[in-house]
Amino acid sequence: MHIWVDADACPRVIKDILFRAAERTQTPMTLVANQFLSTPPCPIITSVQVAAGFDVADNYIVQKAQPGDLVITADIPLASEVVDKKAVALNPRGELYTKENIRQRLSMRDFLDTLRSSGVDTGGPKSFSEQDRREFANQLDRLLAKLAR
After folding, report:
1. What InterPro entries does the record point to (predicted)?
2. Which residues of 64-82 are buried (b: 16+ CB within 10 A; e: fewer)?
3. What pLDDT, on the 0 to 100 scale, is given for residue 111?
């Protein structure tokens, strides 16, 4: 198993949780972003800087992810693609994307995008909270235990 992180918009606190979990479980992890990212001095944690551009990091992750890998992303289209590849997708708030719920999430995202493009203010995501951090950490621990079997 490999952990792939869509790192451009991933909160720092989530990256820190991931760094500790990867080291603790000795699970290889790669952060993918279109900017330089610093990683801890650990041989199983790496980063890849991709070219700037729309979906370049997402495309890299889709290309590299294998069945059983874990992908951390808030990007619903990316989550949909990796779920189709039989990888596991988890967002930074601890929500697991599955084949059962990803189509609904994708439809809602597209609907909200249509509203925004027609001038409707749909608001944005709520602020990242301590509860979100806990939900993510708990879900990550469950997934790493399950996927390691």
Report:
1. UPF0178
2. ebeeebbbbbbbbebbbbb
3. 55
Would you tell me which CATH number, out of the four given (3.90.320, 3.40.630, 3.30.200, 3.40.50), belongs to the domain 3-148? 3.40.50
Check if the beta carbon of residue 8 is closer than 8 Å to that of residue 36.
Answer: no
**82-114 pLDDT, tens digit each:** 999 999 999 999 999 998 887 777 766 665 677
> Any idea which residue has 């370049």 for tokens?
56
Nearest to 15 by CA among 145, 146, 137, 144: 137
Question: What's the CA angle centered on 24, arms 21 and 136, to 5 degrees?
Answer: 20
Buried b (16+ CB within 10 A) or exposed e, 103-141: eebeeeeeeeeeeeeeeeeeeeeeeeeeebbebbbebbe
